[in-house]
Amino acid sequence: MALGDSLPESGGRNTSPIYWDLLRNRKKDGEIYADGELIYRKGVFLVSPFKNF
Question: Domain coordinates of the chain in residue numbers?
Answer without folding.
Answer: 2-45
